[in-house]
Task: inverse folding
């Protein structure tokens, strides 16, 4: 099972790049954030309806998420839903029946875009707290879950390049890191860090100026989180820094199911 997550920063501007990612990586699941488009604005035929089940959750030029699931991976139509705390089209979940993933045979896939917090820090904290509570409340023994997306929090100090660190800046505040740490403590594994524990240059977002991306002066704020039995099967998780023109890199993980 291969899963890709990518904050595209506008799907209409990244249409051909998404098609290239689908062709080169052949992911079974794609989680997108900041699509900045309503479903009717998504370019026609961008994703082959015969190849992927797709769900676009957006309302215009701001925010929005999507989930694409390969039909050969999920032969029955997935159930796409949103938790009650969803606002600004920031989260979508799909549940699919799978053999061998969990005792229940169910796999939950979540694409999420946590608010940046620059304009309304309290709204970010409310959303993140509600996300943590929802994950805990809906956890079912034996069901596998993968949560992907732009969480807008750098978990550790080393997840921000030294040249980008500032005291008490949003995305690195103790209360934000505590919430993300709580999500992990509640039963999810950070597969990117687990596979690359000693890499202090592992970033997924770069401010779009001063050639910061080319110099790899960035932040790690995009994650693939998975329940431990599933996370133990991961054999690859990479941040594709050189791919695309979004300010975020796609993060791609491969699970050996």
Result:
């Amino acid at each position: 099972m291969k899963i890709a997550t990518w904050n595209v920063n506008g799907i209409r501007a990244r249409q051909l790049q998404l098609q290239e990612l689908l062709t080169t990586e052949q992911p079974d699941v794609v989680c997108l954030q900041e699509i900045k488009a309503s479903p009717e604005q998504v370019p026609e035929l961008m994703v082959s309806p015969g190849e992927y089940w797709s769900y676009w959750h957006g309302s215009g030029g701001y925010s929005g998420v999507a989930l694409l699931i390969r039909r050969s991976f999920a032969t029955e139509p997935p159930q796409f839903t949103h938790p009650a705390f969803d606002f600004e089209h920031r989260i979508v979940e799909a549940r699919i029946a799978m053999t061998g993933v969990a005792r229940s045979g169910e796999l939950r896939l979540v694409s999420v875009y946590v608010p940046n917090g620059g304009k309304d820090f309290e709204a970010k904290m409310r959303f993140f707290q509600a996300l943590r509570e929802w994950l805990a409340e809906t956890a079912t023994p034996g069901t596998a879950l993968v949560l992907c997306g732009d969480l807008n929090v750098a978990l550790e100090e080393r997840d921000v390049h030294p040249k980008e660190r500032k005291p008490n800046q949003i995305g690195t505040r103790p209360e934000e890191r505590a919430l993300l740490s709580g999500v992990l403590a509640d039963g999810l594994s950070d597969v990117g860090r687990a596979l690359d524990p000693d890499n202090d240059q592992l970033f997924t977002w770069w401010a779009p100026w001063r050639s910061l991306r080319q110099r790899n002066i960035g932040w790690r704020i995009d994650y693939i989180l998975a329940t431990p039995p599933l996370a133990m099967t991961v054999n690859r998780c990479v941040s594709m820094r050189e791919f695309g023109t979004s300010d975020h890199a796609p993060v791609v993980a491969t699970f050996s199911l």
Remarks:
- Helices lie at 15-25, 121-138, 174-185, 191-195, 228-231.
